[in-house]
Amino acid sequence: MATTIKVTGADVPADAPLRRSTHSHVNLKSNGTSPPKPLAPMRTTYMKKKYRHVAAAHSKPRTSCLSHDSETSPSFLGFRNLMVIVLIVGNLRLMIENIRKYGVLICIRCHDYRSQDLILGAALYFIIPCHLFLAYIVELVAAQQARSSLKAGKKRSGTATPGGSYVASDEEKQKFQSTWKMIAWIHGINITFCLGITSFIVYFFIHHPLIGTLSEVHAIIVWLKTASYAFTNRDLRHAYLHPSKRDEDALPEIYNSCPYPQNITLGNLTYFWWAPTLVYQPVYPRTTKIRWIFVAKRMAEVFGLNAFMWIASAQYAAPVLRNSLDKMASLDLFSILERLMKLSTISLVIWLAGFFALFQSFLNALAEVMKFGDREFYTDWWNSPSVGVYWRTWNKPVYQFMKRHVFSPLVGRGWSPGAASIVVFVFSGVLHELLVGVPTHNIIGVAFVGMVAQLPLIALTTPLEKMQAALLYFFAWQAKYGSVSPAGKSYLAK
Predict the structure, then answer these.
(1) What is the pLDDT of residues 27-44, one digit of tens each?
(2) Do the beta carbons of residue 353 and residue 308 sit within 8 Å?
(3) For this UniProt entry, which residues form the secretion signal (predicted)?
(4) pLDDT tens digits, 479-494
């Protein structure tokens, strides 16, 4: 069978001559007067072949995609998507089953938003920052005293080295330490009074846990920020009065644009108050503009995820906890274990939603508004090879504060890393107990024990066990004061 060629849609034998049209520019005579006409576009030429069943499907040695001998690592993106779908479908099934069993327990009108709660919450929101202003006054006085010590012509008892360093005398060292002790006492009394008064008002006078939690979180954040503000300015003041050219005493290069005491301004402290960090610096990496669409998207995620967490906890988690009280009272271990496993699923979902809402959505929105450049609020804690790595990666703002102002100073003073870690976890346990126990009016020590117990059990615990204790406080509040519809209350009472 002769091979054919397709030319402009016509099949002709391959060995037959091609006959051109009389209008083709190739047949024009050299003395022709008519101009050549453009050729019509030609289709792609292809060869028709007879299919042969001898193609080599196996031409070289290859390994399976999931085999350890595979040269390239496969992508598991599809498995991740599948697991997400399974998680969503599984929990939707449980929630549908819950609605069929208990009915709709969501009741916005049943929430007890007392006017007293709103008034006290608003008052605390404006009173708490006043303690930051007091801290600014203290540091402003200390900065003015430092300036006066370096006035031109004023004789100092220390020794200036040719390299530009200054070695303080014993008298100057003693004076600096005594001044710092007085400043530290003022700061300590100021912020502790702020946190104590806030905790007292929230525990005894604010009923609703959301308003109480916002007030308590604000007070704890101001406590930590003020401590960082005081410690950092102390070291900056020391470097200002006793300059050193040694590499280990050098300040970060980013601080050169705002040296001490130029950083002691109300605007600088106000920015630190709103910045999404607990560690004070005179200067932070900044962005150039605010992307308001980005902010709107992140805030929409915050509101959506918070609504989801409220519905999931009120509709599903609270009834499971209520139904577990009689099993706990009778010490039915197998039933308690079954209830805890049932509760752990929705608790995990609520925790993941809360983590994304806070660290990814809210903090990124706040950083965008403040033009805050460093937005590493967490790293890939889900790939943590150990619990210790998890604690260092899932909440970077708190980790950076603890490392900079608690752990590293203690180690620098001769403490062992183990002893310094005990102090860190005890301090963190106290803060967690205040954060979840005061707003829910249930200071039972579970959060504190859970944090301290991480030390001996750090090799055995899983990263998500920590949040179970925190959720118990909210579920306990739901069981005591929570809002359910009248129909749901009558059903649960049966």
Answers:
(1) 444 454 555 555 555 565
(2) yes
(3) none
(4) 555 554 454 444 444 4
Same domain, 312 and 246: no
Please, are residues 199 and 473 in contact by the beta-carbon 8 Å criterion? no
Report the pLDDT value the prediction gives residue 470, as an integer from 0 to 100. 53
Kindly state whether residues 309 and 419 are assigned to the same domain: no
The DSSP code sequence of 343-363 is HHHHHHHHHHHHHIIIIIIIH
Considering just the CA atoms, what is the radius of gyration of the chain in Å?
35
Q: Using CA of residue 275, residue 276, residue 280, residue 282, what is the dihedral sign?
A: negative
> Is pLDDT of 186 > 60?
yes
* Torsions phi, psi for 66 (to 5 deg): -95, 5
SS3 category, 11: strand
Nearest-angstrom CA–CA distance, 110 and 102: 17
Structure tokens at 347: 């608790």
How far apart are alpha carbons 240 and 470 in whole angstroms? 44
Dihedral of CA 279/284/289/294: which sign?
Answer: negative
Structural domain range at position 425: 380-480
Q: Can you tell me the mean pLDDT for 332-351? A: 78
Judged against a pLDDT cut of 60, whether residue 196 lies above it is answered with yes
Task: Specify whether 332 is located in the same domain as 400.
Answer: no
Is 490 a member of any domain?
no
- Secondary element (H or E) of residue 270: helix 266-274
Task: Provide DSSP, 472-488.
Answer: HHHHHHHHHH----HHH
Looking at 231, 249, 274, the residue that finishes a domain is 274
Single-letter code of the amino acid located at 494? K
265, 328: one domain: no
Number of domains in the chain: 3
For residue 326, give the H/E element and its range. Answer: helix 318-329
How much is the pTM? Answer: 0.73
Q: Which residues are tagged catalytic?
A: 432
> Which among 339, 371, 403 is the end of a domain?
371
Identify the weakest region by mean pLDDT among 12-16, 114-118, 183-187, 474-478: 12-16
Cα atoms found within 13 Å of the Cα of residue 382, Cβ hemisphere only: 4
